[in-house]
Amino acid sequence: MLNTEHRSAEYAGLDTWEDEAILSALLGSQARAIASVRDAFSSISRAALDLAERLRAGGRLLYAGAGSSIRQGIVDGIELPATFGFQPDRLHFLVAGGIEALFDSRGAAEDDAASATAEIAALQLTARDSLIAIAASGTTPYAVAAARAAKSG
Q1: Residue 76: other Cβ atoms inside 10 A
Q2: CA-CA distance, 101 to 66, in Å (whole number)?
Q3: Closest to 100 in 3D by CA, of 125, 59, 66
Q4: Residue range 95-124: average pLDDT?
Q5: Which residues does the annotation mark as catalytic?
Q6: Which of the listed residues 2, 5, 105, 106 has the most CB atoms within 10 Å of its CB?
Q7: Residue 62: count of CB within 10 angstroms of its CB
Q8: Per-residue model confidence as pLDDT tens digits over 32-55
């Protein structure tokens, strides 16, 4: 079972812990996330430069994912128009199960690779467009299929 798909024994009984213990656990979790980013820093940097070039050329920015992952992508993306003047019509969110799934993601939409592939095809991507596929596990079928379809399109 994937690490993202089960309860962590490390946090068992979290709701009964003292506040400082909870904060310490959260801080440790964030430190592990930062270490992961540090390990991938050069790849992330190259991707960011490539993305910026495509956006300067008029490309669109797409985010694809399911559940909590796409919610984080939406939080990121909706800041772009207000903060950087990014044109909203160049911003697209592909949500497994549709917008309704933002409020109820208990379904199996995250496994619907065919839907992701069809949604990418409908957008008729060009070489200037960029997709950010988001999946905590790195294996969510919807996000992976969107990435594959975008790359091959």
Answers
A1: 13
A2: 8
A3: 66
A4: 91
A5: 79, 110
A6: 105
A7: 23
A8: 999 999 999 999 999 999 999 999
Across 114-146, b (16+ Cβ under 10 Å) vs e yields ebbbebbeebebeeebbbbbbbbeeebbbbbbb
Count the helix, strand and coil residues of the chain and give each as a percent rounded to the nearest 5: 65, 10, 25
Residue 119 DSSP label: H
**Res. 1: pLDDT tops 60:** no
The C-alpha atoms of residue 55 and residue 86 are separated, in whole angstroms, by 9
Report yes or no: 44 and 37 within 8 Å, Cβ to Cβ.
yes
Beta bridge partners of 131: 62
Residue corresponding to tokens 């975008």: 150
The full length of the chain comes to: 153
Q: What whole-number distance in Å separates Cα of residue 87 and Cα of residue 129?
A: 14
Position 137 confidence tier, pLDDT thresholds 50, 70, 90 = confident
Q: What's the token pair of residue 21? A: 């213990």
The SS3 call for residue 57 is coil
